Amino acid sequence: MIRLDLTGTEKYCSLTDEELRAAAAAHRSLLEGTGVESDKTGWLTLADRILTGECRDILAAAEKIKSDSKVLVVLGIGGSYLGARAAIEMLQPEGDVEILFAGNGLSPTYIRNVIRTLGDRDFSVNVISKSGTTMETSLGFRVFKDLLEKKYGEAEAAKRIYATTDAVKGALKGLSDRKGYTTFVVPDDVGGRFSVLSAVGLLPMAVAGIDIVNVLTVAARTMKELNECTEGNPAEIYAAVRQNLYRSGKAIEILACFEPCFRFMGEWWKQLYGESEGKDGKGLFPAYVEYTADLHSMGQMIQDGERNIVETAILFDTDRQQISVPDEASNADGFGGLVGRTFGDVCRVVADAVREAHVDGGVPNVRLNVEACDEAGFAQIVTFFELSCAISGYLEGVNPFNQPGVEVYKANMIRRLGTKK
Ligand code: PA5
User: How far apart are CA 238 and CA 285, in angstroms?
Assistant: First the structure.
């Protein structure tokens, strides 16, 4: 279970009983299905449902891809992409199949680079789109479907295309049925940004070599624990603290981690909170910083700029790799006192120094302690943030499950490009 350390918020926020009761009530309304858009809370039971349902088919497809491909090109954007990439970058599995991501933008340079990296290796494609009509994904799919068909012929290409989309409707579903692609489902009751533990995230993760049964098992257990926790529930408290600090004038929440492999988890988190809470003229702006690198750039702004920032830091108790500070005869840099200490140990001391500086400088710090940067840690983080985000959205008084704002540019785009949809 994630451990919440609020030492760094004490100076700025002390939750009242009423705030704690409100967070518990928001949580209860999620579980009882009495809150706004309660038909989009299927992620609460998603890990359990996949374990007893689609998991077997996902694993079978992953085995087939591993047997006939050296590369899997994953096409998707937003919630149909970030979770898988975040998991693979965080966990760095040592599988034999390289996962390349495309269909998440319109840069011709990026697409050319993916094609160049792919080279002449055997490959398969996983196209992921709940709506089946997202332009970036559709155009990317055209490019890679074309490459597949030129390389293998139409019939064999169809056996190498895996489509993750709505169970019954949408252009991609229709095309998949006509062409005979293997299909996986984005559940109706799960929005894109809450879908990483469905086939959306799990198929690329399994192909990359991640043990998805382990991820799902830990996620299901964590969700149960968080939903049954009545005293000091960390998901409720995190939501309440964020909302308290938001009301007190904080406008930006920075998520910070000392592991560069966490960068895409930061991207996933930004989407989760930004799309869920940023509406009706409200919401903390979510940003991500990578320490210690960003302490040498953004550190100035965090320490000394406008005092409108809340910091949430993710710390791992253990390190996947060990390396110690070596001896150096001249000790020219003056760091000889650290000889023999591990970098991980040094980093944790630095994390305390950073928290002390930022708290003193006017930045409340929430710390989330996670045991390890591994599959279990990934599952715990995803579960914790999804649940706490929904509670926080209910506390803020917005619908955390829609995203009307992202439609505006799409309408303009369609008008200017002259496409129907
Ligand atoms: O969270 C969301 O709903 C969005 O980020 C979508 O996932 C994203 O726009 C992609 O949509 P689709 O899966 O329909 O292609």
Answer: 16
With a 6 Å cutoff on the Cβ, whether 290 touches ligand 1 is no
Among the CATH numbers 3.40.50.10490, 1.20.1250.20, 3.40.50.300, 1.10.287.3510, which is that of 43-213? 3.40.50.10490
Query: Is 410 an active-site residue?
Result: yes
Tokens, residue 216: 């799902």
pLDDT digits (tens, 9 = 90+) for 326-360: 999 999 999 999 999 999 999 999 999 999 999 99
Mutate to test the pocket of ligand 1, among 81, 131, 276 (most ligand atoms within 8 A of CB): 131
Index of the ligand 1 atom closest to the CA of residue 134: 15
pLDDT in tens, 117-147: 999 999 999 999 999 989 999 999 999 999 9
Whether 19 is catalytic: no
Q: Whose CA is nearest to atom 9 of ligand 1?
A: 78
How many whole angstroms separate alpha carbon 360 and alpha carbon 11? 9
The H or E element that residue 209 is part of is none
Q: Which residue has the CA at smallest separation from atom 2 of ligand 1?
A: 192
Q: How far is the CA of 143 from the centre of ligand 1 (A)?
A: 20
Contact 325, 336 (CB under 8 A): no
pTM of the model: 0.97
CATH topology of domain 3-35+229-396: Rossmann fold (3.40.50)
pLDDT at res. 170? 87
* pLDDT digits 0-9 by tens, 149-178: 999 999 999 999 999 999 999 899 999 999
- Residue 284 is classified by DSSP as P
